[in-house]
Every structure is written in C-alpha cells, then in structure tokens.
Specification:
single chain; alpha+beta; Ribosomal Protein S5, domain 2; formyl-coa transferase, domain 3; 3 domains; five-stranded mixed beta sheet; 22 strands
Length: about 625
C-alpha cells in the first residue's frame, strides 16, 4: 500500500508579469477609448495646462497624447511601466485622501502589454529627455533624446498581440464616438486646460481655456448658450455647482448628462434620479434633461476604489447628498421660471444701454364723418376698394352691399347635401366590405382615433400608431432594397452637429441615403441636406435629420436593436401623422388600405395594439347593466 502512494506535484505558480499585465489590460483597457482616458488623466496629474490628443483609425492604429506637464526623470519613466508603480500611494490610508485621477499604477503597464508604446519625456530642469520603446511588455530600447518639456506618448496597434480582442473592436466611427465621449468628460472637468483633438488629420475640437459655461458651449455648440441654468449650493456636506438644461430642450437620450465628484466623472443612477425628480412634471414623457454638475466632498467620506475604471463611488451619507442635489436643482429651475438668468460674462457693463428718447407730444386722433349720409338709401354703385385717408385717420364712406341676405345660401345647400349623403350611407357594412372605400362609414374621434363600422360592431384605429406601422415597414423595405425615393429641396439646408453625432452620421450615411436622404459632408461637423425622403412631405430637413439621429441613439440604448431596424423605427416615429391631426375622408380611407396591407397591421411599434374591435353584444351588455 505504501508503495502505491505518491505525492502530487505542485501545480500553483505565479503568473509571468507579461501574462498578468494582459489580464489587467482586460479590466483597464477595454477599447481605444479606455487607453485615451488613462493617458489624458496621466497628463492632467502631471500638471499640464495644454493637452493634445491625436487619433488614427478610431484609435486602432495610433493614440498619441502630448502635454506640457512636469515630465519624468530617467528612472521614473522606466518605473511608470511597472505594475502597481505609482507616485500617489504610499500607505493604505492614502486611498481615502485621493484627489488625483490615476493612482493604482496599472494603466501604463496594461497598455504596454497589448500595444507598441513609445514614450518621450523631459523635466524642465533636465537638458535631455528619455525615450522608451516597449512592445508587449518587453522593453526594446531606452535612450536619451531631445524633446520638449513634458511628455509625449504614442500607443500604436492596440491589441496587436491579442487578435481575439482586436476582432471584437467595432468600426472606426463607433470607436471614435467612444473616444469623443471620454474626451468630452475630461474636457468638461478641466475647463482651465487647453485641449485639442485630431482624428485622421482633421481637427475635431480646439478648446481654449475658458469658464465652465464657455467650455460647454465650445463642446456642444453655440445654441447651448441659451439653454443653461446655473446651479450652486454650498453646504457642510457637499459643494454643488454646474448647469442644468432648460426643460424645453430635453432630449430622448441620456447622452448629455455628466456628474463629477472631486473633478472625477462618475455614473450614479441614484444621483441621476435626484435630478430627474427635480424636473418632475416639467419634462415630457421619456425625455432627459442636460446637466453638468460638480460635487466637491471630503475624500475621506467616499470610496472611489470600487470599480476598475473608477467611474463608481460609494458615499457615507448618500441620502443627504440626494436631498441636496434635488433641492438645489429644483430651486435653480424655480429662479429661472421667475426671472431669466443674465450671462454676466457677456453683459459686463451697462454703458451700451440706449437712453430712451423723451416722449413726443401725444395728438388725439380725429374722426371724419359725413353728416348727410343715410344708410337706408340704396346706393347705385358698390365700391370694392375702401382707401385709407391718411390726413384724417378715417375711412371714406362705404356703401352697404346689396343682396347680403343671400350670402349663406351656398353653405346651406352644402349642409343639405352632406345630410343627404350621410343618410344614404347609413347602411350596415359587413367585414368584407371594408375593402370598398366608397361603402365605408368612417368617423374621426378627437382627431386621434378612426372609427369604422363593421358587421359585428365597430373597430377603433389609433391613427398615429397605424401610420407609424405603415412607414416602419415601408422604410425597412427601402433599407433592404436601397429603394428610397428622394424629394429634392428647393433650398438645400446646412446642418451642424456635435462631434459625436457627426461621427455617428458618417457611420449611418449609406443607410440614411438608402432611405431617400440626399446628404453630403460639408466641412467640420457639417452636412448639406439636398433632399429628404418623399414620405416626409414638407418637413424641415435639419430638424428631421437631428430627430432621426436622436431617435436612433435612443433605440440603440434602450431597445438594443440592429442598425437598420433602429433607423426605420426612428424615422417612422418622427414622420408619422401625430395625434391631434384632422384627417379628411380620403386620407382615412388611404390609411386603412395601407394599414391592412402591412405584414403586422395590429401591432404598434411599442408592442401595443393598433386596432381594437367592439361587438354589438358587448355594447348591449353595457347598456343592460
């Protein structure tokens, strides 16, 4: 028995550093935007007030960050690529006093494990800088070089040694939109720092140092200048400052919602709910307000080390913070409703005010009349023009038209004809006769529903839901067949979008053109709309395009639909006849014909019913009760 006994060999071993770094990279670097976030935050921690970001191929080929910060020494430059090497932490207690961005010492080590990295850095007091080239955690070279004060880091061919991860990356426009999202967050948190962003040789953002309001306007567009309401609250728990958007400018997506705690962007559903509660009864259903809010709090009262990307925070007293945020936003909205806020950055003096002119002497109007005029005497001639008498302020004597009592004879005849037509059509129609428009009995109720009599009773059609279903199936077929018909605009309209929406539009451009839009790029973040789908009628080109993009983003975020389904659904919702629109008999007949030609006529885009039927038996039961 003892001879059969053997000892199992040891099987637990320490991971090699290169493998450990690749595993850490899976947590820290999920896509190019993750690397951008880490590198830009490192530049901010170095004290830089000028940061340039250069991107190629959505970050897959190149991510370069250039700053004018403090730079690093020869030893620090080499140590920065080691795991858990950081200048921010010395003991465990330091975790609860952190005010900088990066502190765990994993970012550069993780990036270097899955990319080709070149780092050039120099301190102000050094004559020469340091250049380090690392590929897959292996240091290829380290030597002195001539470089400007600060740091320049190039990350090339992200995930070059992990092809499975690289294959999961999305298209360049999609990855670029994620980079823009990260860039906007960092730029909002640091308005006193100059930022620029270049993508494939084109400058997307050029953001000079400015106030927070000016930074918001530079990022999202000049039209945001009139949309912002300031928020400010100073308590012994937190300090709150920032801006919220006016209710009438709320959007269908949550995109422009930013919370910062000690200048660090966070996602917090609890605080987001506090802001929404402040907007309660001010917003339409399923719309979300803009807000950029900054919370300053004692670092000892929060824990920021609960998530690998540090976008979630735990608070000691979150209920109090919730109440403060809600009341502060609500108070600001109340002040805005009473007196509109003044932008003192622009209105910094009153010297430009115009002094009112002294009142001129008020002259009483005079009235001219003909004392010999007799209204009961018949006039021989009816004057069609009544010219204005400038000298007297009155009118020339106007005669009474003859045969005025026959004025309404035509309308009376029309009423009689309509009553006769109604009587002739008051025959019961069976369900099969719905296919004969001339024999239908249709009524519109409250300009929202169409009521049609059938043999078994009657049916009620939701006119907006019906039109949405018709257009949705039509647009879906056009996307599949690239058969959309375009209606050319007499005056092409230029539309300027924010950088994120512009990148999304470039990604969707082939499908948008398949729907019937005639669009071409026109300069920085702008397009020219020369034609729209013929089904949209006289809709405003710019407005319908913005609504299409907004609806698409909402469908992607909430319903997780594929690209073509989202586009067809978004355009159908925006182009459909809205509830409250009066329809003629011909329009109602056409709507019913098109609805019953659909594949799913009874299902609305939100999954609810389009048609509801009521039988005569149901009506009798109600009256008997």
């Amino acid at each position: 028995m003892q001879g059969n006994f053997y000892t199992m060999p040891d099987i637990i071993q320490l991971l090699p550093d290169a493998v450990a770094n690749q595993i850490a990279a899976g947590e820290v670097v999920q896509r190019p935007a993750s690397a951008v976030k880490e590198l830009v935050e490192n530049s901010l921690d170095s004290g830089a007030d000028k940061i340039q970001l250069i991107i190629k191929d959505g970050g897959k080929s190149l991510i370069q960050v250039i700053d004018n910060g403090g730079g690093m020494s020869l030893t620090d430059a080499r140590m920065s690529f080691e795991r858990h090497a950081t200048s921010k932490i010395r003991k465990a207690e330091d975790l609860f006093a952190i005010r900088t961005m990066g502190f765990r010492g994993e970012a550069l080590a993780s990036i270097a494990a899955i990319a080709q990295v070149e780092l050039k850095t120099r301190r102000h007091e050094d004559e020469l800088g340091t250049c380090i080239i690392i590929e897959g955690s292996e240091v290829l070279s380290q030597q002195a070089c001539s470089v400007k004060t600060g740091t320049s880091i190039c990350v090339k061919n992200l995930f070059f040694n992990t092809p499975a991860r690289r294959n999961f990356l999305k298209s360049n426009p999609v990855e670029m939109r994620h980079i823009i999202d990260e860039f906007q967050r960092v730029a909002l948190a640091n308005p006193l720092v100059f930022f620029s962003l270049h993508h494939d040789g084109q400058e997307i953002y050029h953001l000079p140092a400015a106030t927070l309001k000016q930074r918001i306007v530079h990022l999202f567009g000049n039209n945001y200048n009139e949309r912002l309401v300031p928020v400010e609250e100073d308590t012994n728990v937190i300090k709150l400052r920032g801006f919220v958007g006016k209710p009438e400018f709320a959007k269908k997506t949550r995109g422009e919602q930013f919370f910062f705690v000690n200048n660090r962007f966070i996602r917090d559903a609890y605080l987001n709910h506090a802001v929404l509660m402040a907007f309660k009864e001010l917003l339409p259903e399923d719309t979300f307000p803009l807000y950029v809010l900054f919370i300053e709090i004692d670092p000892a009262k929060i824990d920021i080390n609960v998530h690998p990307t540090k976008t979630e925070i735990k608070y000691q007293d979150e209920q109090t913070i919730y109440a403060i945020v809600r009341s502060a936003v609500k108070r600001s909205l109340g002040r805005y409703n009473i007196t509109p806020s003044l932008d003192f950055d622009q209105e910094n003096s009153i010297e430009h005010l115009v002094t009112p002119k002294p009142f001129e002497e008020i002259v009483a109007p005079t009235i001219a009349f003909n004392p010999d005029y007799n209204p009961f005497l018949a006039e021989k001639k009816v004057e069609r023009e009544i010219p204005f008498l400038r000298n007297t302020g009155g009118y020339r004597d106007s005669p009474i038209p003859q045969n005025w009592d026959t004025l309404y004879e035509i309308s009376k005849k029309e009423v009689i004809i309509q009553q006769q037509m109604h009587t002739e059509k008051s025959i019961a129609v069976d369900d099969q006769e719905l296919n004969k428009p001339s024999e239908r009995q249709l009524f519109q109720i409250h300009n929202r529903f169409i009521l049609s009599q059938i043999k078994s009773g009657f049916m009620v059609i939701n006119q907006q839901a019906a039109h949405e279903r018709i257009l949705y199936e039509r647009f879906l077929q056009q996307l599949q067949n690239h058969s959309g018909v375009s209606q050319q605009s007499l005056f092409p309209q230029s539309v300027t979008l924010n950088s994120g929406d512009f990148e999304l539009l470039k990604e969707l451009l082939p499908d948008i053109r398949a729907l019937g839009f005639d669009i071409r790029e026109f300069g920085k973040n702008s397009v020219v709309v020369e034609g729209v789908p013929a089904d949209l009628g006289n809709a405003a080109e710019g407005e319908i395009l913005e609504q299409l993009i907004e609806g698409y983003k909402n469908n992607q975020a909430v319903l997780k639909l594929d690209k073509r389904d989202s586009l067809a659904r978004s355009l159908a919702r925006n182009a459909a006849t809205k509830a409250g629109t009066k329809m003629s008999l011909e329009e109602m007949n056409l709507l019913i014909d098109q609805l019953f030609a659909c594949q799913m006529p009874n299902v609305a885009l939100n999954g609810k019913q389009v048609i509801t039927t009521f039988t005569v038996e149901e009506l009798l039961e109600r009256f008997e009760k």
